[in-house]
Amino acid sequence: MRLQTSGVCWYNGRGRRIESLSKSDRVRLQERGWDMEIKSRKNAAAAALCTGVAGNVIWGSSYLFTRIAQNESSPTVQLAWRFVLAFLLMNLMILFGWEKIRLRGKKLRPLILLTVTEPLYFFCESYGIYYSNSTFSGVMLAIVPIIAMGLGALILKEYPTGRQILLCLLPIAGVVLVTVAGARMGAVQPLGVLLVLGACLFSAFYRVYNKGSAVEFTAFERSYFVIGVCAVVFTIVALGSVRGDLAPFAAALHSGKFVTATIFLSVFCSVAANILVNYSASVLPMAIFSNLGSLITVCAMFLGVIFLKEPVNAMSLMGSGLVLLGLFLIARTNHAPQREDQTAPGQEKPEEHKPSSC
What we know:
Blueprint: E1 4-6, E2 9-11, E3 17-18, H1 23-31, H2 35-70, H3 75-95, H4 109-130, H5 134-141, H6 144-156, H7 162-167, H8 169-182, H9 190-213, H10 219-241, H11 247-252, H12 256-281, H13 286-291, H14 294-307, H15 314-331
Antiparallel strand pairs: 1-2, 2-3
């Protein structure tokens, strides 16, 4: 029987999950030094790191397309169309049998907490920028990885190493340099400070609950419910802002730029990026997963320079370099954990092999 591993689960050659192993299989796996399990963990970690980077880079491009769409319509209408189209796309994936939703026997509390934090984050971020400015918001949001690691230690009992704590200061410092170099600080109202702090807190909670709910829910399931709740909330908000008039919704569709930008935001930034990032959350440690969000600022800056002809200076380039260097060094700390008990489910801890007297 040929055995394969995926995380802490064991599979045979046909891909069927094995709940328990025979004594002969356990001895054979012990003799092989658990090489398959360690290799599987390393491969999963590498894949999760790649998907996390790809997802955050896509999210970084969302600023460019959001700006294009908001030039043609109001922010509330744009958000409503974005998440409604994304939710329809995910339902089509279920309809054609590409994905499935399984909730039976699962604890819904982590998923509910996850879906609640995302609309609250968007609300605090949007109005926090309105009552302060984007530079102040960008500087404040740079502390999200620190908050997320603290909440991860309190809620998930996942403690970062001292090296990871020190290295996370590099991307945070880089984001601060990029945002400060972007524009001068403007008038900041006390309400704006509170809203931006709320955005930082909800963003950190989202990352923690995302990782916590990954124990029972797949990346698609988490993305499906988060996007569904956002579609309902932002549609209600948009209808309220226009007093139930559907004309602004229809008028936005007459703009080719709005349609193109909204389709990109729906398909790639909402559906694809959410699934990619949610998969990385289920594998990567919190210290690494939370710091990948620093790529959003760097990606948004370079796309703005290339396509929108926004100015760039030496401080921005220096900050971008710190972000990339910090993420590279933190990623190198992502080794497969060496557990004291590396046994498969349903078997006892293997005894330590001692050399014979011969």
